């Protein structure tokens, strides 16, 4: 995230297009996104190999277990609801479904009309993990649903509306 300071220092303070040697806000966001995209795999890999506590994590360990696919539009909606809500506290803002990587791959393959035979799921036993993982590790969004009215879309709904997003 060291990239943030570099981008902010290069923004045009008057937000005027065509400033000499400075970036417009949109260009700044673009460069920030490129920096995050480029640096995240590097920092994640380093953090996985050199954790603060515990054993190093392999890519195999990282990709094992369930995921909560979350549409970025739902995250944006959740953040806007949090900003507008007067209560403080911890709210989980994520997708409503907890799925394996294989289940996510099957749904995306269905949407794209691809053959499932190219997807080869593995069981937890086949992963031969050093530390057992819980069967379910998703977060509860009940608080966000009841207090904020947060209702994220399911993966199939997002894929079905993909062309209209």
In short, what is this structure?
This protein has 165 residues and is mainly alpha-helical. Helix content is 48%, strand content 2%. A two-stranded antiparallel ribbon has the order 1-2.
Query: Roughly what fraction of the amino acids lie in strands?
Result: under 5%
Secondary structure tally, helices: 8
Following the backbone from N to C, one meets helices and strands in this order, namely: HHHEHEHHHH
Q: In this structure, how is the largest beta sheet organized?
A: 2 strands, antiparallel
**Strand line-up across the major sheet:** 1-2
On the 0-100 scale, what is the average pLDDT? 78
Q: Based on DSSP secondary structure assignment, what is the total number of beta strands? A: 2
What portion of residues is helical? 40-55%
- Oligomeric status: single chain
SSE-based structural type:
mainly alpha
Shape: globular
User: Which spans have pLDDT < 50 for at least 5 consecutive residues?
Assistant: none
Radius of gyration: 20 Å
End-to-end span in angstroms? 29 Å
